[in-house]
């Protein structure tokens, strides 16, 4: 199959997400018994999750060929040609749910349920609802990929080139799920027809170590020269006596008394308070946190001036990456709720770093992190036009880079309110 060009990953994500029209989301919401906003958020998280699994697949040997065979033989074109029917219930939906479950097993292996639970948690839907939506999003994604006219090499290059963009759009914590756990050893027979029983991954385990066995020395019958061993016994006793003598002469080093270092005092954590947002929504956040201050600022039309800068207080990334730590996800989820409650607000996310490393790499990392947070907000239903991004790297420090405390202050993400 000829390949004319490699599509941008964002256009692939959009090619799938654009199918989630209000009518499709309404039907999907009815199918899984969740609100339309939560259903849309789950679908928007499911698509990059599936793409992340495909990136992992094509990263392995012959993974591109496997994916190409799955697309060629799976018959997923129908899923992308009639999306409304795909989520509409009935026999078509039930058949695709069954195929989609098998497809998720091919893509994620034994991590399928963990990925589904993560999508559920990040979007606020139940695990059973996320499982159905993932099972329908997977064949839809492969159906859209099949329309691109890419061969095995084209699929591999397109997905690998977009690895960072796909990871930024996926739910936080997905990379840890996909990279952790035992190594799958796939059976040598590769099956691409999803109507056949799936191959089962078996996991290599270390060979059991036999417990040490005692060695028995057979006692030899005494010979007539039974006293032949006496000189050896005397030598052994002499050596043992010398050893005890030397040990007795060696002064023992006095052991220092154990001193227990008191734990460093921790900063008191402000108690959480319920903040009521327009539309009857509530968030529970600590007083003085960014989301508390932002919600208070947006609620007061007379508060100013604008632009107003807020610094994230609990937003941390894995080292040298755009992946949020698990404890930071709640901060973004609460921010998304605030932003959706004030649809007229316009903000800018601005990334900064310390001066460690290459300046150009730091500038790129700061922008990538701002874009990663924006992608999470959009996945939660925030209007993408209401959020812009910028990255200044190490060029705008707020503290000295000569100390770790100063460098930590310089590694920050800011939110600038441009309009209420």
Can you tell me about this structure?
The protein has 420 residues and is of the alpha+beta class. The chain folds into two domains: 9-188, no CATH class; 273-419, OmpA-like domain (60s Ribosomal Protein L30, Chain: A, 2-Layer Sandwich), CATH 3.30.1330.60. 50% of the residues lie in helices and 9% in strands. The protein contains 17 helices and eight strands. The chain has helices at residues 9-17, 22-32, 36-58, 63-74, 77-81, 83-86, 90-108, 112-123, 127-146, 152-161, 163-169, 174-179, 230-249, 290-299, 329-341, 359-379, 404-410; strands spanning 184-185, 202-203, 272-276, 282-286, 308-311, 346-352, 387-391, 412-419. The strands form three sheets. A four-stranded mixed β-sheet has the order 5-8-6-7. It has a two-stranded antiparallel sheet with strand order 1-2. A two-stranded antiparallel sheet has the order 3-4. The longest helix is centred in the N-terminal third of the chain and has 23 residues, at 36-58. 38% of the residues are buried.
Q: Which labels suit this protein?
A:
2 domains, 420 residues, globular, two-stranded antiparallel sheet, four-stranded mixed sheet, disordered N terminus, 60s Ribosomal Protein L30, Chain: A, single chain, alpha+beta
What's the quick description here?
With 420 residues, the chain is α+β, with helices and mostly antiparallel strands.
């Amino acid at each position: 199959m000829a390949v004319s060009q490699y599509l941008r990953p964002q256009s692939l994500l959009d090619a799938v997400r654009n199918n989630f029209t209000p009518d499709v989301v309404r039907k999907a919401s009815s199918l899984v018994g969740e609100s339309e906003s939560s259903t849309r958020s789950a679908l928007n998280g499911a698509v990059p999750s599936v793409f992340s699994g495909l990136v992992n697949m094509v990263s392995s040997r012959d993974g591109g060929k496997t994916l190409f065979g799955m697309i060629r033989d799976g018959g997923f074109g129908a899923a992308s040609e009639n999306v409304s029917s795909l989520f509409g219930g009935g026999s078509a939906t039930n058949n695709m749910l069954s195929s989609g479950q098998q497809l998720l097993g091919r893509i994620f292996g034994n991590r399928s349920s963990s990925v589904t639970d993560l999508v559920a948690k990040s979007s606020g839907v139940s695990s059973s609802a996320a499982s159905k939506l993932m099972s329908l999003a997977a064949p839809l994604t492969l159906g859209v990929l099949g329309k691109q006219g890419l061969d095995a090499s084209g699929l591999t290059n397109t997905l690998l080139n977009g690895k960072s963009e796909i990871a930024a759009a996926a739910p936080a914590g997905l990379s840890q799920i996909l990279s952790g756990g035992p190594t799958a050893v796939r059976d040598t027979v590769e099956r691409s027809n999803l109507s056949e029983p799936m191959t089962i991954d078996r996991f290599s385990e270390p060979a059991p170590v036999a417990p040490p066995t005692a060695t028995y020395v057979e006692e030899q019958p005494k010979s007539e020269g039974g006293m032949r061993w006496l000189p050896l016994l005397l030598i052994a006793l002499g050596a043992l006596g010398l050893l005890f003598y030397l040990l007795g002469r060696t002064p023992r080093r006095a052991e220092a008394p154990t001193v227990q270092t008191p734990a460093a005092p921790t900063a008191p954590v402000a108690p959480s308070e319920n903040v009521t947002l327009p539309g009857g929504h509530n968030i529970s956040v600590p007083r003085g946190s960014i989301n508390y201050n932002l919600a208070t600022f947006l609620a007061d039309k007379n508060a100013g001036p604008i632009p107003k800068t807020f610094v994230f207080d609990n937003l941390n990334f894995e080292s040298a990456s755009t992946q949020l730590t698990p404890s930071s996800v709640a901060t973004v989820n609460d921010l998304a709720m605030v932003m959706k409650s004030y649809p007229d607000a316009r903000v800018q996310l601005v990334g900064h770093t310390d001066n460690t490393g290459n300046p150009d790499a730091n500038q790129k990392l700061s922008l990538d992190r701002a874009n990663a947070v924006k992608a999470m907000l959009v996945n939660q239903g925030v209007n993408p036009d209401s959020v812009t991004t910028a990255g200044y790297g190490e060029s705008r420090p707020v503290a000295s880079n000569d100390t770790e405390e100063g460098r930590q202050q310089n590694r920050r993400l800011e939110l600038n309110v441009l309009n209420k």
